[in-house]
Amino acid sequence: MNRDRGGGRGAFLAAGRLSREFALLKRQGGVPYVDICPDIDDLLTWHFVLHDLPADSPYHGGVYHGKLVFPPNYPFAPPSIFMLTPSGRFSVNQRLCMSMSDFHPESWNPSWRLETLVTGFLSFMLDAADPATHGSISTSHAQRRRLALQSFAENKRHKNFATMFPHFVDDSKFNPSRGFSLSGATLAAPAAAGAAPSQLPFSLPSFGGAALLRNAAALFFPRADSGGEPAAGRQECSTPEEKRSEGSGEGGRGGAGRLREGLAAWEPGSAARLSSPAIAVVILVAASLAALLNRWIV
After folding, report:
1. Catalytic center residues
2. pTM, to two decimals
3. Residue 254: burial class (beta carbons within 10 Å; 0-12, 13-18, 19+)
4. Which residue spans traverse the membrane (predicted)?
5. What is the mean pLDDT of residues 13-26?
6. Of 40, 7, 288, nearest to 164 (Cα)?
7. Which helix (H) or strand (E) holds 243?
8. Which residue segments constitute the domains of the chain, with CATH numbers given?
9. Which residues, 6 or more positions from 20, have their beta carbon under 8 angstroms from its beta carbon?
């Protein structure tokens, strides 16, 4: 079993943190519509299944498999997020751009947890406005309904899915015309396209902050307006590799340069006076605060 994915002690600590988050989530009763399970071979990869989604969504009766791939320095860096089951909403096995994924490490908050991630993802997927992001796709209501009914068979073909989620491959809980229901109950007829969505029967986690409580989808996924441009305050989504390439090119700003710019924003004209020792002191203080935060969280 690959327990550290090359990250050494840091990866071991990250895996321990995730295990504690999972245990806490189970004690709290989990998240409605979501099942979570660690990967069989890698404790920094966690799988989730969205199921029994509301009847007024095109995903009703579908079973949607996704995964979170955490870095060895979690919780101080965000995970990658993938959808593995065709849904008509997301590209398959492609990293999704969200404010809490590795596309936007500057937005990451170390207090966010497994519950925060899957709740935000679910909120975004069920958003009737279909906000766009890198990795999302646009398809018709009818196509999403077809994919929902096909998802049960699709997941059976995925390696290790039945081992991790045996209750989601039970043929007795699948109706070819209505889809899958974990409880085995007869599913309601799906709503027609354009029907008003119902409210989710749970509240968003309070530890995500006021912005998360106000609008989970807006926090987790940078929206685009009608003209296709990023919403105010959001940067264009680019892959982490593209960001590293931009930062390392001629004229690219390193960490010290960005730090100077940030401090200059707080005190205009201070960038020129910021010396290397001052930068070292700021970094040392930030690292100390991060260590204290980690001890408080875990």
Report:
1. 97
2. 0.68
3. exposed
4. 278-297
5. 95
6. 40
7. helix 240-248
8. 7-182 (3.10.110.10)
9. 298
